[in-house]
Amino acid sequence: MPHFFSNKRLILLLVGVIFLVALISFSLRDRDNASLPEQIIKDVVGFGQSIFSKPTQYITGVFDNVDALLNTYDENKRLKDRLEEFAKLQAEVNDLASENSRLRDIVDKQDDLRDYEPIQATVIARNPDQWEEKVILDKGEVHGVKKNMAILTAQGLIGKVVLTTPFTSTVELLSTQNPNYRVSAMVTGEKEVFGLIEGYDDERKELILKRIDSNIKIEKGQKIMSSGLGGIFPKGILIGEITEVSTDDFGLTKMAYIKPAADFALLDHVMIAKRTMTTVDGTDGDNSGTDEDEDAS
Amino acid sequence: MKRMIIPAIAVVLFYLEPVFGLFSPLDISGEYRFLIPRFLIMYLIFISIYYSRNRAMLYALLFGLLYDVFFIDIIGLYSFLYPLICLIASFIVKFIHQHLIVTTTLSLVLVAGLEFVLYQFFSLIGLTDISLAVFVRERLIPTMIANSIFLVVLGWAFKYVINARLLQRLNQPN
């Protein structure tokens, strides 16, 4: 029987293991930016990847269109029913928007947390091993993408940028298990209630909203939006809907389970929200402030 | 020109993996099923069995590194596991008959092993906290089904291409 471990191989293997551990610990640290060789590799591979993924998206787009055509009749019937309601709502929204801008003029306040410039981007790859919830977009620093910007689809918020290179950016989705991932959010209603999206329940496929003031009553079915107070995300991006409210581990604040509005499964075209107002590194970013040790769960 | 065909197929498979990854997770009656494409490593196992172990390990190291940097930002994980799997494959193949069915089964067993090692690794660093039963049900079984379909359909083509290249190399040593 030939020896699997000859001396030379054993040494090579040991050196390999040591090198591996060193590299892994290097890359697991919270790095602010990709190093230069990494950026070059990412850009080159990303370019090739977009060549492969664009035709695929075209083909899936054709299939989606056929699918949409097949449902047209039913959908049309349903939409007609809602059209009247929609026109009324639209008039109301227009009225409120104009009133809002008039009032803003009166008090001379121009900046709005809600304003953002959308940057259209295409998902060119999803991390194929799917342990980390990451996708890669075809827009990077040269297009104005910066770290921690919000990523949304037409349905709602899906994640934020964690790494940028000149021509690509890596997005970590909301469904991540990363404990340092948080988004400042609010419960909409008559009174806005603030909380932080922290964590994702893998079994229920729902997000967890924590640190809600326990004196304020919140209910199942209320909508959750980004609050804009985390420093980087614009205000008013839909995140999801409350499905269950309970108290947290210490009984001091409330927590709620949130069914995400956007679907994380099949992503193709997304928007990067570049907030027009000044950004600061708050809870949406890496600066988790003083409450870093509170995460008992 | 023909010299490039083996690395060229590897490049194509490397780029196809994330494209197939875009279709996953599949939502089957409320439960997610993760299909993880492992085309490249299966191809590399075939290279290591039918062509040359050292060449396979070189490609494995190179593509493993690209995979690490581009997709998962943990450098050293795939660039270690891919060559290791090629090494194990070339070691095991000395004791077994090199029939296509046997090598296909061997590749699939090694891919399952890779999935399991990765599961252990990601649980260790705390990126996932799913239980073993959930891992087997949601990830391992769908992944193995998808990859075995792929390999059954394309395994003979891999073998054909590699053998053609091997013959060519034997005929004109350069």
TrEMBL record, chain A:
InterPro entries: Cell/Rod_1 (IPR042177), Cell/Rod_MreC_2 (IPR042175), MreC (IPR007221), MreC_beta-barrel_core (IPR055342). The keyword ATP-binding does not apply. One of its GO terms (cellular component) is plasma membrane. It holds the Pfam family MreC. Transmembrane segments: none annotated. Residues 123-273 form the Rod shape-determining protein MreC beta-barrel core domain. Signal peptide: none annotated. Keywords: Cell shape, Coiled coil. Residues 79-106 form a coiled coil. One of its GO terms (biological process) is regulation of cell shape. It comes from the Bacteria. Involved in formation and maintenance of cell shape. Belongs to the MreC family. NCBIfam families: mreC. This is Cell shape-determining protein MreC. The gene is mreC.
From TrEMBL, chain B:
The keyword Transmembrane helix applies. Its main location: membrane. Keywords: Cell membrane, Cell shape, Membrane, Transmembrane, Transmembrane helix. It comes from the Bacteria. It is a multi-pass membrane protein. GO terms for biological process: regulation of cell shape. The chain crosses the membrane at residues 31-51, 58-74, 80-96, 108-128, 140-162. It holds the Pfam family MreD. It is found in: Cell membrane. GO terms for cellular component: plasma membrane. Belongs to the MreD family. This is Rod shape-determining protein MreD. It comes from Paenisporosarcina quisquiliarum.
